Automatic annotation (TrEMBL):
This is 3-hydroxyacyl-CoA dehydrogenase. Residues 5-182 form the 3-hydroxyacyl-CoA dehydrogenase NAD binding domain. Residues 185-280 form the 3-hydroxyacyl-CoA dehydrogenase C-terminal domain. Pathway: Lipid metabolism; butanoate metabolism. It comes from Cytobacillus mangrovibacter. Keywords: Oxidoreductase. The keyword Oxidoreductase applies. Belongs to the 3-hydroxyacyl-CoA dehydrogenase family.
Length: 288
């Protein structure tokens, strides 16, 4: 595989594009908004140069990696040469199905269509295509260039060949993979949403402060990041959409915490808005 396209240039999409370009893929990054692509291009260039200056990547490959990324607002252009397309738009099943339907029309017959969904059904998404055997979910984690895992989730009709090709792409990106049979929330989101939602309930009930809840999880249970810090990083709107889907599909224990709903209504979306369970400065720093 030589050509990899990413649909959506937000946090996850640009992270996947960054990692793929450094791994030698010819990458096309698509978004519907020119300004989003400008921001993504600036972010990717800055991150690569910063990583090179700190010795994390070889400075000699930066220019080549940056030259390997094409930016476009035309979905057809992103589809035409791709060996694999990774959709990384926000968690909305209708939007994802519409994108897969369009990709199916314009991609070559061998192209694999992957969704970076964290909770939604790859079977349902693939139902809009004439290639359900070549559709799969590849759940990346934020920040993509640092996190080592990709969940590989097969849909009802996903072929063994597609699973193996997705795993091979993951290995080329320097990631470990786990294979998951489709079920709402997969492995990580199902567990993570439950832990995070309980932390929010404890905060709402006055059990402890956000800082102490997170500190307890990090030092007592060896979590690298507290559940409230992580929710701020993911985005509280994203977390709420995930919780609503899991509540609909898995039942009462996934009912979204009222505090989460209140924060989203108030525009407190976490790091990206500057305010969530914590407050953030321009360079996101935890306020003590």
């Amino acid at each position: 595989m030589k050509y990899l396209s990413v649909i959506g240039s937000g946090t996850m999409g640009r992270g996947i594009a960054y990692t793929a370009a450094l791994s030698g893929f010819h990458v096309t990054l698509h978004d519907v908004k020119d300004e989003s692509l400008v921001q993504a291009k600036s972010y990717i260039a800055d991150e690569m140069k910063k990583s090179a200056s700190r010795g994390f990547i070889d400075p000699a490959i930066v220019d080549e990696a940056l030259a390997n990324i094409t930016y476009t607002t035309f979905l057809e252009k992103a589809a035409e040469q791709a060996d694999i397309v990774i959709e990384a738009v926000y968690e909305n099943i209708t939007l994802k199905m519409d994108i897969f339907k369009t990709l199916d029309k314009h991609c070559q017959s061998h192209t694999i269509l992957a969704s970076n969904t964290s909770t939604l059904s790859p079977t349902e998404i693939a139902s809009q295509t004439n290639r359900p055997d070549k559709c799969i979910a590849m759940h990346f984690f934020n920040p993509v260039h640092k996190m080592k895992l990709i969940e590989i989730i097969r849909g009802l009709d996903t072929s063994d060949e597609t699973v193996q090709l997705a795993k091979a792409v993951g290995a080329r990106l320097g990631k470990e993979t786990v294979e998951v049979n489709e079920f709402p929330g997969f492995v990580t989101s199902r567990m993570n949403c439950l832990i995070g939602n309980e932390a929010m309930n404890m905060l709402m009930e006055g059990v402890a402060s956000a800082e102490d809840i997170d500190k307890a999880m990090k030092l007592g249970l060896n979590h690298p990041m507290g559940p409230l810090e992580l929710a701020d990083l993911v985005g509280l709107d994203t977390r709420l959409r995930n919780m609503e889907y899991l509540y609909q599909t898995l039942g009462e224990k996934y009912r979204p915490c009222p505090l989460l709903i209140k924060y989203v209504k108030a525009g407190r979306l976490g790091r990206k808005s500057g305010q969530g369970f914590y407050s953030y400065q321009t360079e996101p720093v935890l306020k003590k």
